[in-house]
Design goal:
alpha+beta, conserved putative lor/sdh protein from methanococcus maripaludis s2 fold, 6-stranded antiparallel beta barrel, 5-stranded antiparallel β-sheet, 11 helices, 37% helix, 22% strand
Length: 713
């Protein structure tokens, strides 16, 4: 088209011509009018917007059409999809088991511990250090030296204690001699006091001389025994003497009286002089005076002297008796004092001597030798504390120069003919695992009762002691191992050792700990229970179980144990666990994708027993239904519903288990083993609480402790 003549001077065309002669529009050029001329700068903006409105409407229609197409594409009947893996639901027997990894060890170990005491508590409780130790895994024979502990400090203590023992012995001998001397002194003082008492009693008896008068015995029935007593002592003799003297004086008085009368008659007859008569009269007066004196003396003897002398002698006797009692008390006090001193010195000496002997025994304990009752060629291994097995803590490490504590286990001599697996079972499944059934034999009680009923008095005395039962249990021939009798084995288990994966072993659960083990630093939230599985023999391909020959399995090897926990009695509907959709927030139900004629229907199901591969469906599915094993492809990447990836292998689960230890608080998916979130190795989701303290409960709920430590898928 040719260029039209210019009709205005506002603008020129820019550019002058376009394609096919039409004016072209440059992005920076002003809008071109319908007549081919450029529009003036004063043209309003609304005119330009009206010219672009059809383009916006067209774009909006294209966007709506795209959204509608995408919606139809994602919601159209799918039919068969190549990316969906289908599983045909069927009935089958379901075995519920728990699979755990553990460590091989001997079921019959001889542990050698440090018996050297930690005398210095300020040394962080360490008793001594290791000077030399035999190599780990060495074959030894009875009595062979296994370890030499440092005894230099004990040697110094022994020398010092020997001097102390000699000093205490001298003090002990001196105290014993002092005791003997005091005993002699006590005997002398008591003998003197006893003699004084005896003399006093003799003097009193000598004065009174009381005795029973035989002729007055008949009077005792009426007046009593005192009425029959008569005095025949010194007092009685003296009284009799005075009585005799009085009688003689009376006779003299009578004679003198007669002579005086005769003298008076003679004077009158002049046969005698008056002086002679007066002399006779004076002799009469003198005899009367003598008689009066004797009678007065007798009266005083009876009234005063007797009482005074009896009182004096009685007092002397009583004082002698008290002096004897005092001598006995003083002797007893001195004897107790010296005996206590002697016993104290003896006790101090014996204590010092026992300390010396103990130091000597501890020096002997510094040489650790193999027990005499082990089999020649037994293996000795270093004891490894379970709590430090995977820790960077070097406490308890056995090596030359390492410090050891009193009572610390250092070496172990295992019986390789009796092996077991030490594993830890999660709290979700521990309630369903049972060990050997044992019943008490009451053997210790029967033995003690027999000792009580024995005719031997010594046996009865020993049986009555409070510690007899404990001695019977823990003595040299202790009966502790006979206190319980096994009447049934625990649950069966299969064992595979990583070093020899081509062999399979069978065994049974021996014991399950009643309390949780000490929490590991990497898995502090999980509660694990120590479980021991005894290895009964090797399982051959033909199903026979034969004893283990040779030393194919050794301590500290890693083993995988599968414990048969439960099983259904009849076939049930089962599906793979990776087909399940949902988490613990849904309770005992989950969802699956079921293939229908219209596509894939998301259906709710109720779960039952389960293991690490299959789960029982109690409601929601029928035999023959086809379900999606990989529901993630139907959910989409943005859907946050919990699932389990299809094709998870045992190795993948083991890796997830390691992640479990590092993430104890994450949400759980429906899959997994007893050490992970999801299925804890089986159980009935309608029973039990399960779950963890932190985070949400993982996997299917309940089921013999459903839900492991929370771990996300």
């Amino acid at each position: 088209m040719s260029k039209l003549p210019e009709q205005t001077t506002l603008h020129e065309t820019y550019p002058p011509n376009g394609v096919n002669g039409s004016p072209s529009q440059h992005p920076s050029a002003p809008p071109i009018g319908s007549n081919g001329f450029t529009t003036a700068r004063t043209v309003p903006t609304s005119v330009a917007r009206k010219s672009r409105r059809p383009f916006w409407i067209a774009g909006l229609l294209v966007l709506i059409a795209g959204i509608a197409g995408a919606t139809y594409y994602f919601n159209r009947p799918t039919g068969d999809r190549a990316d969906v893996i289908l599983y045909k639901v069927k009935k089958e027997m379901l075995l519920v088991s728990v699979t755990e990894k553990g460590t091989l060890e001997s079921a019959d170990n001889r542990d050698l511990i440090c018996k050297v005491r930690a005398g210095n508590k300020g040394n962080q409780g360490f008793a001594t250090s290791i000077n030399w130790v035999i190599d780990d895994g060495t074959r030894v024979k009875p009595g062979q030296l296994l370890m030499q502990l440092d005894d230099s400090a004990l040697r110094d203590q022994e020398e010092t204690q020997s001097i102390t023992v000699k000093e205490k012995l001298a003090l002990k001998v001196q105290a014993e001699k002092d005791y003997e001397i005091q005993i002699k002194k006590n005997e002398s003082s008591i003998a003197l006091a006893q003699t004084a008492l005896t003399v006093a009693e003799i003097e009193l008896d000598k004065l009174t001389g009381l005795e029973v008068e035989q002729g007055l015995i008949g009077l005792a029935a009426v007046a009593g025994i005192p009425s029959t007593l008569t005095e025949n002592g010194a007092f009685r003799q003296e009284l009799d003497d005075l009585t005799g003297q009085i009688s003689l004086a009376k006779s003299t008085v009578e004679q003198n009286g007669e002579r005086a009368a005769w003298a008076d008659r003679m004077v009158k007859l002049s046969y005698m002089s008056a002086a002679q008569a007066q002399a006779e009269k004076s002799r009469l007066d003198s005899s009367k005076e003598s008689l009066r004196s004797l009678e007065s003396k007798k009266a005083i003897l009876i009234s005063h002297d007797r009482l005074q002398r009896i009182t004096t002698l009685t007092s002397t006797r009583d004082n002698a008796r008290r002096a004897l009692d005092q001598a006995k008390l003083e002797a007893e006090a001195n004897e107790v004092k010296t005996r206590t001193t002697k016993e104290t010195a003896t006790s101090i000496y014996l204590q010092a001597f026992e300390n010396l002997e103990d130091i000597k025994r501890q020096r002997k304990e510094c040489k650790i030798v193999a027990p005499d009752d082990i089999i020649d060629g037994s293996m000795v291994v270093y004891f490894k504390n379970e709590s430090n097995r995977f820790s960077s803590n070097n406490t308890g490490l056995i090596e030359q120069g390492a410090q050891v504590r009193e009572g610390q286990k250092m070496l172990r001599i295992p019986n390789l003919d009796r092996m077991q697996v030490s594993a830890k079972v999660h709290e979700a499944m521990v309630a369903r695992i049972h060990g050997d059934v044992r019943v008490p034999t009451h053997l210790v009680e029967f033995v003690q009762a027999g000792m009580v009923a024995s005719f031997d008095p010594i046996s009865r005395i020993i049986a009555a002691r409070s510690d007899t039962a404990e001695v019977l249990r823990t003595g040299p021939h202790g009966l502790r191992r006979f206190e319980y009798k096994k009447i049934a084995d625990g649950q069966r288990a299969t064992i595979r050792v990583e070093s020899i994966p081509e062999k399979q072993f069978v065994g049974h659960v021996r014991t399950v700990s009643a309390v949780a083990s000490q929490a590991d630093w990497w898995n502090s939230d999980a509660k694990l229970y120590q479980t021991y599985i005894t290895i009964d023999g090797e399982l051959l391909p033909d199903g026979r179980v034969v004893p283990i020959e040779g030393e194919h399995i050794k301590p500290d090897m890693t083993a995988e144990v599968t414990i048969s926990v439960d099983a259904v009695k009849t076939p049930v509907i089962t599906v793979p666990i990776q087909a399940i959709i949902g988490g613990a927030e849904m309770g005992a139900t989950r969802e699956v994708f079921v293939k229908t004629a219209a596509g894939y229907d998301r259906r709710e199901v109720k779960l039952g027993l389960y293991n690490d591969k299959m789960v029982e469906i109690r409601e929601g599915l029928a035999e023959g239904d086809e379900i999606a094993v990989n529901p993630k492809v139907l959910l989409g990447d943005k859907d946050k519903t919990k699932t389990r990836d299809a094709g998870d292998s045992k190795e993948t689960k083991d890796q997830d288990s390691d992640k479990t230890h590092s993430k104890p608080g994450a949400d759980a998916g429906p899959g997994g083993g007893p050490t992970k979130g999801g299925f804890p190795g089986g159980g009935d989701p309608t029973k039990g609480k399960g779950g963890s303290k932190k985070g949400k409960k993982g996997g299917f709920p309940g089921g013999g402790g459903g839900g492991g430590p929370p771990v996300g898928t």
